[in-house]
Known about the structure:
By secondary structure, the chain is of the alpha+beta class. It is 35% helix and 19% strand.
Amino acid sequence: MITEREYKKRRELLAKKFSNNSIGVIFSSQHVTRSHDTHHPFRQDSNFYYLSGFKEDNAALVFLKSKEEIKTVLFVQKKDKTLELWTGERLGTKEAKKRFLVDEIYLSDDFDKKFKEFLKDKKNIYYEFESKKSAAKKVLKMAKNFKIKHDIVPLVQKMRLIKSAAEIELIKESIEITAKAHHRAMKIDKKGKYEYQLQAEIEHEFKVNAAYSDAYTSIVACANNANTLHYIKNDKPLVKGELILIDAGCEHNYYASDITRTIPVNGKYSEPQKELYNLVLNTQLSIIGMIKPFVKRSHLQKSAEKLLTKGMIELGILKGDCKKLIKEQKHKKYYPHGIGHWMGIDVHDPAPYKDAKQREIALQKGMVLTIEPGLYIDKNDKSVPKKYRGIGIRIEDDILITKDGCENLSRSIAKTVEEIEALSFKF
């Protein structure tokens, strides 16, 4: 778990980036209405959680920086027995003072008054520019006379790019649970079942292993449904002889996993399915083998495109010269997305891909990203040999950049044709 000292260190590092005579503020999430008077389960704002570990709503973190010192102030909800009866116990100021390593703690009800006091001798303000939170909009009005304004969000997101040892352990724990879910999906009898029933099996495994939510809506896409990249209807039958693309990962203690496997409904791949699957798999293995510090994602992307295009030429899916096909972006019809993305507290961690000068950020030790090549061939694409039509395949793993190379954090999840067939229920 992440200690209070680590959260404190993060706050200090952030405040050090501020100019002298500055004030910074960041707010918790708000409850989101599902419909009428019901709400989605509360989930803390990722940046706020990264800096505090605090899981309640109606909270704020304020940073005060002068030439002499840096102070952090936490605002929390007051204790309220009536509301706690309905929505659960609140920490309150007394318990918050025991737990959090901040300089001052006040009630959220006093935020406006205290914040106006804090503003008096400050020249710079750092806040959430694009935030839709009502409290952030209020701060915008309070700060209207400030000449120097900064967006606090990119500063936090940049910090999130490199994961600490504690964060890496939490990601590993998330992946361990997700591994059980994917293996459960492979092992069960799928005869007569629907996509949503397989989704239920996967998410059951999340919850019984203390991952109370998924990191994103699970994709369980059988046959041609896999050619819709973000297919989440999950309402069609599982058809014997077809493949199922399962893109599912849990969130455990606020850290995500993101895994995709493409498995046969009846437990065995056909020869055409195997040909396409191994092309994607070999591409993924090659790309993972290239990963080390100072390599750029653009290099991995171009390498994946080249490998997949060569393979598609060999299988008769594309015709012509590899370089020319790539230059004309003919391969994009079948591989339209990127090789991967940052992952952490958010499944698509919003850490930057470019620096302040718009130069691509190279891989560094401590970064975590997904590697997920794929091929998607629509059932109505008559330019492709018939045996490949209606097949969509993606293979995705979560990769940690190490000092000399990388570690596949999800390597325990069955991935080769032989491994998946050995685990799968056959009918």
